[in-house]
Amino acid sequence: MRISDIRILSALVALAATLVLAACVAAPVERSAVAVASGQTPRTHAEQTEATRAIAMAFLRQVYVAGDIRGAYDGFATEHMRQHNPLMADGLAGHRAYFAAVEARVGSSVAWANVNNMIIVDGDLFALHHHAFTGPDDPGRAFVDIWRVENGRIVEHWDVIQPIATIMAHANGVGCGRGDNYEAALALGQTVNPPACGLPDSTASRDESLATLDAYSQALFSQDVAGAIERFLTDDYRQHSPVIADGKRGALEFLLEEFGSGEAAMPRMGQMRVVAEGNLVLMHRLTEYADGSHTANVDIFELRGGQISEHWDLKQPIPENAANENGMW
Q1: What is the pLDDT of residue 217?
Q2: In sequence order, which residues have a C-beta less than 8 Å from that of residue 33 and are 6 or more positions away?
Q3: What single DSSP character describes residue 318?
Q4: What is the distance between the alpha carbons of residues 82 and 146, in angstroms, rounded to a whole number?
Q5: Helix axis angle, 69-76 relative to 91-106, nearest 10°?
Q6: How far apart (Å, rounded) are the C-alpha atoms in residues 324 and 309?
Q7: Which of 145, 186, 166, 211 is nearest to 5 (CA)?
Q8: How many whole angstroms separate alpha carbon 282 and alpha carbon 300?
Q9: Cβ of 212: how many Cβ atoms within 10 Å?
Q10: Quick one: pLDDT at residue 22?
Q11: Do 50-188 and 3-36+202-317 have the same topology in CATH?
Q12: C-alpha separations of 226 from 46, 54, 219, 263 in Å
């Protein structure tokens, strides 16, 4: 991982929202989860990304178009897949047991309505941002799943899950404004190819997207919050964090209210995992707060013309006890 990438990651943290950067503890980058590993050339990275994409798209089509989640995992994952969802035991056996219990409680997953918003592929990782409803009365949950591929098989899985808020600070929804309830999600049909928010911009540079976030973080570290927002957020900046109002003004008001006085206790970040493709950058980390609580967090940024144009985030409390020993990161 390059120094510029590390600066981005150490700076960018969202506390239940958009971008809380100014006083966070610098975080190292998880080596295997960043696509451009040490010694890897852009060509080999591109080849690995495309090999991962072939597996990702076939796997996701089987899960979300064919509705065969069991067959997809049996066909594409290793029997001893390392699991980071705290409610699932390791391996395919743990995955099967979990979904059997869920379906016994809320009904078959075949009847659920799912909207796939974004698919990002980067080296040996692919990530999916989606939201789902188990029925007409379910307000739904938003998800980010991340899978790691090795030797043509899925060997590891992480996720961050957050209930969809019934009241939000804007009207943008948790995805891209499509399928925001059970009936609307069903009506969309399949959203694998293309996903509801569209594909990453193939003409955009991953490196340039990371460099823009790097420059933005450095501006925030200089404590010029208003200047950084004016320079690096587009005029039509869209917010999807449920607690922050839309636009530049919403981001500025949130940052100043929560952290502008310098009196708030800053969260402490753990290592970062990055999945970036074209104009989309996903960041995954664990965060520790002053009261001793911990969360798993994901932020996704869309960039356009050297600025940040859109932002999504998810945060999930980390339970004291888990069905596996791997942690949520």
Answers
A1: 84
A2: 124, 125, 146, 148, 273, 274, 275, 284
A3: P
A4: 12
A5: 170
A6: 37
A7: 211
A8: 4
A9: 22
A10: 33
A11: yes
A12: 37, 43, 10, 18
**CATH fold label, 50-188:** Nuclear Transport Factor 2; Chain: A, (3.10.450)
What integer pLDDT is reported at residue 265 of this predicted model?
A: 63
Q: What is the signed CA dihedral for 244, 295, 323, 103, rounded to 10 degrees?
A: 0
From residue 70, how far is each of 63, 64, 176, 209, 230 by CA, in Å? 8, 11, 28, 36, 47
Phi, psi dihedrals of residue 208, rounded to the nearest 5°: -70, -35
DSSP, collapsed to helix, strand or coil, labels residue 70 as helix
Do residues 329 and 284 lie in contact, with contact meaning Cβ atoms separated by under 8 Å? yes
The per-residue pLDDT for 71 is 96
- Rounded to whole angstroms, how far apart are CA atoms 172 and 93? 38
- Sheet with 77-83, side-by-side order of all strands: 77-83, 153-163, 141-150, 125-133, 113-122
What's 111's DSSP letter?
Answer: G
The answer to whether 128 and 202 have CB atoms below 8 angstroms apart is no
Sorted by where each begins, the domain ranges of the chain are 3-36+202-317, 50-188
3-state secondary structure at position 72: helix
| 4 Cα distance to chain centroid | 21
For the chain, residues with pLDDT lower than 50 are: 1-38
**How much is the pLDDT for 140?**
97
Cβ within 8 Å of residue 51, ≥6 positions away: 149, 152
Q: Are 89 and 97 in contact (CB under 8 A)?
A: yes
CATH number of 3-36+202-317: 3.10.450.50
- CA neighbor of 122 nearest in space, from 45, 26, 193: 45
Q: C-alpha 183: how far from its chain's center?
A: 25
Through-space distance between the first and last CA atoms of the chain, rounded to whole angstroms: 18
